[in-house]
Amino acid sequence: MGGRTTTGPISTLHRTWLRQPRWSLAARGAIAAGIAWFVGVLAPAPLSEYPYYAPLGAVIATTSTLVRSVRDSLQVTAAVLAGAGIARAADAFLSPGAPSVAVVVGVSLLISGWRFFGEMGTWVATSAIFVLILGNADALEYVGSFAGLVAAGAVVGIGVNLAMPPLRLTPTEDALDRLSTVLADVTEDLANELDARQDPSVDDWNRRRHTLRRALDLGRDESGHTREAERGNPRVRRHRRWADGQQVRIRELETVVASVDQLASLLVDAAEPVELGDGLRASLVRALRGLVEVLRADVRGTERGPLVDRFEEAVQDFDGRFRREPPEASEELVSAASAVALHRAVAAFRG
Fold first, then answer.
1. Are residues 181 and 330 part of one domain?
2. Residues 159 and 183 in one domain
3. Could you read off the pLDDT of 220-261 as tens digits, one per residue?
């Protein structure tokens, strides 16, 4: 009894932790910032006079993937030094005031667009302003401390990422599940409207397409984050099949989305309503509903294979019926293109 009450909350907390990567990000950032602060405090003078700059580097390093944290750390250190150089040059030739600030910011923003700095380019202007305003008392000391502590903090952040490497498999799985659900709903709507002989509204379908595109974009983004997080990540060895399976699944769903979108374009966007024969229409509806069953099945479940088989049989039935009972010439192109789109979906599930 007591074991169940203890395990329940722990299990729930663990699932929540996995599904909310922001929590692990916050934990890594907090740990790295705290360690970096102590590094700054314990550093020799004059660095120890500015310990608060070390957590900046730590936060930058821990907010990205393992490999990317190394790149970001190098880029931010270079950006800080570039900004400091711009500020010192302006201080040497211009009097303090609005003109010098304007020149420093303008030049910094131009330099920040250099591809080498990547997403860390904004730190050129940030560093330049800090050095220009705060570093007048002892310019070289301040610049060295600022850049050195940011770099030291970044090293701490990289170390924390090595100890707790981020791997966003669960959020990616959630995004792919949502994409599969949205795609199944859209496909089912198309099947139901065909079965009821309704003329689908173009406006309704445009809204459904927008929802589907958003789900597809999210799935692609999360899959891209996972691919990047795998690089140099020791955790991925324990989850290789899961990670590889997600990449297979996003490619599979991308193909099926394209197939369903093509079907919708053929059946909904046509200038004139598409009139398929009763047998051909019923066969197409069965194929679409077979696709819905596959999309709603557990991707790791044993029932998915037989559902794919049934879907393929329904597609072959539609294809065979189309060939045995050729429709009117005006509908032949729609039927043939629909068969091609459905075969593409089958091929996606077959890998």
1. yes
2. no
3. 988 887 887 777 667 777 777 877 888 889 999 999 999 999
- Do you know the residue count of the chain? 351
115's tokens: 């591809």
Whole-number Å distance between alpha carbons of 226 and 41: 36
Is residue 343 classed exposed, middle or buried when 0-12, 13-18 and 19+ CB atoms within 10 A define those classes?
Answer: middle
Same domain, 56 and 142: yes
* Side-chain-facing half-sphere of 327: CA atoms under 13 Å: 22
> The whole model's pTM is what?
0.68
Host domain of residue 115: 18-163
Secondary structure class of 350 (helix, strand, coil): helix
Closest CA to 291 of 229, 348, 226, 208: 348
Rounded Cα distance between 168 and 227, Å, is 9
Residues 6+ apart with CB under 8 A from 135: 84, 87, 142, 143, 146
Asked if 142 and 56 sit in the same domain, the reply is yes
CA dist., res. 274 & res. 284, Å (int) = 13
For the stretch 90-136, pLDDT in tens is 877 877 788 888 998 999 999 988 888 888 888 899 888 888 877 66
